[in-house]
Structures are given as C-alpha cells and as structure tokens.
Design a protein that fits this description.
The structure is a single chain. With 334 residues, the protein is of the alpha/beta class. An 8-stranded mixed β-sheet has the order 7-5-6-4-1-2-3-8, sandwiched between helices. β2, α3 and β3 form a beta-alpha-beta unit. It is elongated. 32% of the residues are buried.
C-alpha cells in the first residue's frame, strides 16, 4: 500500500480521491457533466475532505464517436482530468474494473459514477465523511423511483426481488455509484472473475459499509446505453455469477417431477389390474410436453453455468487499455 494509503488509514481525511467515470459514445453528455464533476471535486478540496492531487479518471469503453478525443482535450486543459481507453467495447462493468485497477495503488479512496448526470454528485461529500467515520465502502442508493415509468419501476423491483430470491446479495436500488477505500479495493483485486457483477462482488468483499440516499435525475443529454435487453443480461450474469441456488432449485424440481412420475406409474399399473384403463392421446401429449419443456428448461439453467465455467477457465483478459492521456503538466498548453 502506498504511503498516502497508510496515512489515510491513520487520519482518514483528507484522502487522495480518484473519481472513476466510464464512458461510451458520450460526446453530447461530457461537455455538460464535466463542469459538474470538476465543481464538486474543487468543493471537496476546498472543504479539506480530499487532497489537492485528487483527480477524475474517464474510462472510454471503446466508443465509436469522438468521446476519446474529447477526453484527451479535457485532460490537456484541466489538471485534474485523466483518461484511459479500452482497445474495444467490453461493457460497463469491465470499464469500471479497468478504472479501479488503474488507480488502486495510487489513491486512498475511489468513487465510481456514470457520466450521464443522473447520479447526484452532491452526495460525494457525505460519502467522504462516512469514509472518515470508518466506512470502507459507501453505497449510493436511490431514495425513490417516482421519476421512473411504471414499466421501469416494476421491472427494477422484479430485478431486485429475483436477485434476492435466488441468493445473490445486492443493495436494493444501488447501481454502481459507490465509494471504495484503498483497503477494500486491494482485497477486491483478489477476485478474478471474468463474468463481472460489481455491485454484488463488493458486497462479498465485506468490511464496514454504509449508505447515502439521493434522488436520481434524468439524463442531461443523449440516450441510455442500458436497454431492457442488457438489464436482463446483467441480472442473469449476477445470479449465475454469485449464486448456485438456481442449480439447487433445478435439483429439487427434478426430484418433485420424478416423484409425480413415480406416482403416475403406480396409478397406471393399478388401473391396468382393475380394468380402468382408458385409451387416449390427450393425457399422454400433456405429460410429454410437460416433461419435455421441464427438461429443456433445466438444461438451459445448467447450460448457463457451464457457459460461465467455459469463460472462466479461458481466463481471458477482462480489459485491455490501448491509450492513456498525457498527465505531465509540461504537455499542457500555456
């Protein structure tokens, strides 16, 4: 651990802060949200909560527009702005991981936040204060979903209920707006999963944690890069990455179907001896369809886990950084 990390453990604040912001095709958003982030960082410095060398790190997740050019331009005009670029688009979770691993040995504390302006940057100060009070992880949690549409609110509630029912530990209404101390981040680095679900993994890391509540706003510009399809994929990834409960449920379901099938055999044999057999295809068709559908469903659940094992055993890189901005002040225009 760095000297600054050790001093933060003794005094907690001021701490060197790295704000990690993943970006994907955000040229319309960055000009509007960058001033918000810089203003909040300056406020934290003025209040003595973070050190003067605290910074913002943008992670370009292989954008296809001019996002990277914008990040480079901002890094040349703002001392506190840095950037890294992934070699290709690998997804939001991998972009967050890349940023966290990039700074884990040089900061005392990190805050991850999306660049769309929906999360309230004003609660960063409360996060830092809770870190100063001893929390190693501070979760940013939405206080309500009244601004969401009925469909989004209902699907989100179903998402968290499903995660909890199937044994995946999460913080309800928490996305990826969180503070993580250097101590917790060093332990998190020992998790080498290829299939990432960060909001569940940090719960597994443990340590003292707390929550801050805020109101989530609409995007300041652009459109969401997380449609329903990706949300469903994220939920499946979280469940299969953090819990084996679905496999156990399949086992119990198989046992129940087997018991019912055994009872059916006894009934059929008994009916044969008492001459109550009735020829017909309806019951046979129903049984075949039921058992066939159940088998395919169970094979699908098992296949999800086999696929995860397949990807984990390959141990492919979870991110590849192709470019970094120049942070030397000598390269900045005068």
């Amino acid at each position: 651990m760095t000297e600054s990390c050790r001093s933060a453990q003794q005094g907690r604040t001021p701490a060197r802060l790295g704000i990690i912001i993943p970006c994907y095709n955000e040229t319309d958003v960055l000009p509007k949200t960058l001033p918000m982030f810089l203003e909040e960082l300056d406020s934290l410095k003025a209040d003595g909560l973070v050190t003067e060398d605290s910074f913002i790190l943008f992670v370009d997740d292989g954008s296809k527009d001019g996002t990277w050019d914008s990040i480079v331009r901002y890094s040349l005009t703002h001392d506190a702005v840095r950037g890294i670029r992934q070699s290709r688009n690998r997804g939001h979770q991998n972009a967050l991981l890349a940023g966290l691993m990039e700074v884990k040995d040089s900061v005392d504390v990190t805050i991850t936040i999306d660049c769309d302006g929906q999360d309230d940057v004003g609660v960063m100060g409360r996060m830092i204060r809770q870190y100063g009070d001893g929390s190693e992880i501070v979760y940013g949690v939405r206080d309500s979903r009244e601004s969401d549409s009925w469909f989004k609110r209902t699907s989100a509630n179903c998402f968290y209920h499903l995660m909890e029912t199937l044994g995946a530990e999460t913080v309800r209404n928490h996305a990826d707006y969180r503070l993580v101390s250097a101590r917790a981040l060093q332990e998190f680095a020992n998790y080498h999963e290829v299939n990432l679900f960060l909001r569940g993994l940090f719960v597994l890391v443990g340590f003292q944690s707390s929550q801050v509540y805020y109101t989530r706003e609409q995007r300041v510009a652009g459109r969401s890069h997380y449609p329903l399809r990706k949300m469903i994929g994220l939920a499946l990834n979280g469940i299969t990455s953090l819990s084996v409960k679905p496999i156990r449920m399949v086992t119990v379901l198989g046992m129940m179907v087997s018991i019912l099938g055994f009872c059916g055999v006894i009934y059929a044999v008994a009916s044969l001896f008492i001459a109550r057999t009735v020829s017909g295809w309806t019951s046979l068709t129903c049984i075949i369809c039921f058992l066939g559908g159940m088998q395919l469903f169970c094979l699908g659940v098992i296949g999800e886990y086999v696929g995860k094992i397949y990807l984990e055993t390959k141990a492919r890189p979870r991110y590849i950084i192709s470019d970094r901005t120049e942070v030397s002040s000598r390269e900045r225009p005068r």
